[in-house]
Amino acid sequence: MAKLAYMGCDTMDNLKLKIAFGYIRESTDDQLEFSPEAQRRALLKYAAEHGYILDGQNIFCDGGISGRNAQKRPEFQRMIAKAKSKEHPCDAILVWKFSRFARNQEESIVYKSMLKRDGVEVISVTEPVADGPFGSLIERIIEWMDEYYSIRLAEEVKKGMTEKARRGGLQTSPPFGYRVEKNMLVIEPGEAAIVMEIFNRFLAGEGPYPIAKWLNEMGVTTRRGKAFENRTIEYILRNPAYTGKLRWNPRGRTRRDFNNENIILSDAGHEPIVTTEVWEAAQKRLDEVKFQWGHKARPPTELKDWPSGLVRCSSCGATLVFSKPHYYKCNGYAKGRCKSSQHISAALLKEAITERLLTDLVGASALNVNIIYKEKRGDNIAALKTRLENLERKKLRLREAFLSGADTVEEYKKWKDAIDADISALTERLEAAISEAPSGEAVSRLKGSISRALETLSSPISTKEQKNLAARSIIGKCTYDREANLLSIEYRDIFMLQS
């Protein structure tokens, strides 16, 4: 039987009982007296003393969740939806403190306004406020103080984690190949041997896809018991933990941006699995593979035909995939995400690609080349552009720090002048590098590469793997538009401007 809290009286006619919901939230900074059970007792006690019926089944609880984002609190969302239903099941929502309801004042105002339109008020059982405008003002002040406390707490936690990262302290789960003992990474021999084999196979020429396939065939799983994927292998190859270092980004998840300027890389003191030389060689080859193959590309040995993975749909950007009988179609269309099938026979697609290459090689029209510099290791112009962008972001953060009162006028001017000087010097270097770029020589080099690729593509003894590699060596992007009967090719940057 559901437990009810109510105020005792001689007759029910003497008191108009109201229905209440209760909301409990336990965050990571709570102490024992703020436990869910302690909050529950406080809500039931308040309901009994103030004439509210509080059914134990209508007490909603989110455990170990921050109050900064309501969308990440499932029980809170379920309570709001139930409170706003047509049945009008409650008159009030009881919370231990207003901070339990929300620690984001903007969200607090939005949800309280939504509830108020349905005649539901939010009551803090430990922070009574008077009715009227003055009471509303006091409530806003309490909410603002709660939000300020939450922000300051997050800042202090981040400062502590940042300092720990600089000292090489561990604050993440151990990577594959290690376990944790006394807050230090310790080698797990069986997994470490697999990690070494991954690096060895990759440096011997295998790609992430066949390595993942090999591990799955052996029955090896990740720490979470899942199968290995391309990205799993890449993450292992990119992880500096295997060289005795730890990587941490105080601004949040790196999201595979392994060259992010905010990353802290520190010596951690644990035993490495691979040498620094092996790890750096793997980084170099990974950059080369990514540059040539792009995102999620399969190795040639796994392709059904040589144009596979090369051509994309002009409508949605998905790859044209090989399908029986000997036709290509948009992968997005096959999965119901694109309205254009881009249906074309394999023979016609091959012919279109080779004819386009031949036209650009010997056609009467001049081949215009626009060199686009993309960031990759060894590209001086791209590196200079990236450094300029980083300095501009640093300048913006410096201004934000000054406006928030963190820096004095003198400190702000000193650092701003230093950044402006660096920007000016880098701008001059960039302009000089661009002016020295051999754009005139690009056409002849490009035509030489096209000629060599055509030799392989037209050879009767070339395998599909060799033809795919030849095409990828010069084609950076290729799109097909069936409606316009147009095949467009953007050639790969063949100039590697060394710094």
Feature tags:
single chain; 499 residues; alpha/beta; Rossmann fold; Hect, E3 ligase catalytic domain fold; 4 domains; four-stranded parallel β-sheet; three-stranded mixed β-sheet; 15 helices; 14 strands; extended; disordered C terminus
Overall morphology: extended
- The percent range for helix content is 40-55%
| CA radius of gyration | 31 Å
Number of β-strand runs: 14
What report would you give on this structure?
This protein has 499 residues and is α/β, with parallel strands linked by helices. It folds into four domains: 12-150, Resolvase, N-terminal catalytic domain (Rossmann fold), CATH 3.40.50; 178-293, Hect, E3 ligase catalytic domain fold (Alpha-Beta Complex), CATH 3.90.1750; 307-370 and 440-491, no CATH class; 380-434. It is 46% helix and 14% strand. The chain is built from 15 helices and 14 strands. It has helices spanning 36-49, 74-83, 98-101, 105-117, 133-166, 189-203, 208-218, 230-238, 276-293, 331-334, 346-362, 380-403, 409-436, 439-458, 464-474, and strands at 18-26, 52-63, 92-95, 121-124, 178-181, 184-187, 245-248, 264-267, 311-313, 320-323, 327-330, 344-345, 475-481, 486-491. The protein has a four-stranded parallel sheet with strand order 2-1-3-4, with helices on both faces. A hairpin with a 2-residue loop joins β5 (178-181) and β6 (184-187). α7 packs across α8 (230-238) and α12 packs antiparallel against α13 (409-436). The chain starts with 17 loop residues before the first strand and ends in an 8-residue tail after the last strand.
